[in-house]
Write a structure and sequence with these properties.
The protein is of the alpha+beta class. 26% of the residues lie in helices and 19% in strands. It folds into two domains: 12-78, no CATH class; 79-287, Sandwich (Protocatechuate 3,4-Dioxygenase, subunit A). It has helices spanning 12-17, 26-46, 50-66, 73-80, 83-91, 202-209, 266-271, and strands at residues 129-138, 148-152, 174-178, 184-190, 195-196, 215-216, 219-225, 232-237, 260-263, 278-282, 285-287. The structure holds fe (ii) ion.
């Protein structure tokens, strides 16, 4: 221990960090030293008052109370502060051309039903019919057979099935597909719409206080993986969504904005089981084999 161990405003972070015992995990010690140093610097720079600090503690307490097995308010807080995207980006830097990651979000459900290529993931057929089609390849363009695509999206009203267990069929707009021998996949769905992140808790209150809206631009979620490849946790974004450049969780990357083509071709309608015009999204996922 350095110094006399007594608190001192000028050296406040140093005094606290000096208490960390030499026997503890070096990584924990390093991280806590950095966090303490920056937290003390922030309190000093913003000249936080006693009332403001108690309000901050009250906010964090409410954030904890709002959280349960289905609602993770701390993840939401991390998302709206851009921290989820920062951690994800720092830890998933891939070679040029490989599909980029973005936030997982709170609505993924493990073990969704396995479906056949060409199946629909929409159990209620509400919304504009959409075909999603493409290939999964490696960074050299070689097809990956047997790659899995776990897809999930919100319905036409902007809700996931787990948010409306009484209004939507179970597993609505979810499914797991496997690529064929040429790495191809295709399935049908409905065009995603923008939706608000859950804003009835303290994070919603914070967004309103900051003059920010809660609407995530329309997207489909994917987890795409294959043995020996770095799994991509990613989205496909709808290009004409009014919120594309205002995502409250900062998940949009230019490389993830797709092209939704309105298709009136009768032969294609019949080929994919549509009874009228549909939206067609051609999208290839490119996996990095360097870091399984
Ligand atoms: Fe989402």
């Amino acid at each position: 221990m350095t110094g006399d161990g007594l608190f001192d405003i000028a050296r406040s972070a140093e005094v606290v960090n000096a208490r960390i015992d030499d026997s503890v995990s070096p990584r924990l010690a390093d991280v806590m030293r950095v966090v303490t140093r920056h937290a003390h610097a922030a309190i000093k720079e913003a000249a936080i008052t006693q009332d403001e600090w108690m309000a901050a503690i009250g906010f964090l307490t409410q954030t904890g109370h709002m959280s349960n097995d289905w609602r993770q308010e701390f993840v939401l807080l991390s998302d709206v502060l851009g921290i989820s995207m920062l951690v994800d980006g720092l830890n998933h830097q891939r070679p040029a051309g490989a599909t980029e990651n973005t936030v997982l979000g709170p609505f993924h459900v493990a073990n969704a039903p396995r479906r056949q290529l060409g199946d629909s993931i929409s159990a209620d057929n509400k919304g504009e019919p959409t075909l999603v089609i493409g290939r999964v390849t490696d960074t050299a363009g070689r097809p990956i057979a047997g790659a899995t695509l776990d897809v999930w999206q919100a319905n036409d009203d902007g809700f996931y099935d787990v948010q409306q267990p009484d209004a939507q069929p179970k597993w609505n707009l979810r499914g797991v597909f496997e690529t064929d021998a040429e790495g191809r996949y295709w399935f049908t769905s409905v065009k995603p719409r923008f939706y608000p992140i859950p804003d009835d808790g303290p994070v919603g209150t914070l967004l309103r206080a900051l003059g920010r809206h809660p609407f995530r631009p329309a997207h489909l979620h994917f987890i795409v993986g294959a043995p020996g490849y770095d799994e991509a946790v990613t989205h496909i974004f709808v290009p004409d969504c009014p919120y594309l450049h205002q995502d409250p969780v900062f998940g949009v990357k230019p490389s993830l904005i797709a092209d939704f083509q309105h298709t009136v071709d009768k032969a294609e309608q019949g080929q994919y089981g549509f009874s009228g015009p549909f939206w067609k999204v051609e999208w290839n996922f490119i996996l990095d084999g360097a870091r399984p």
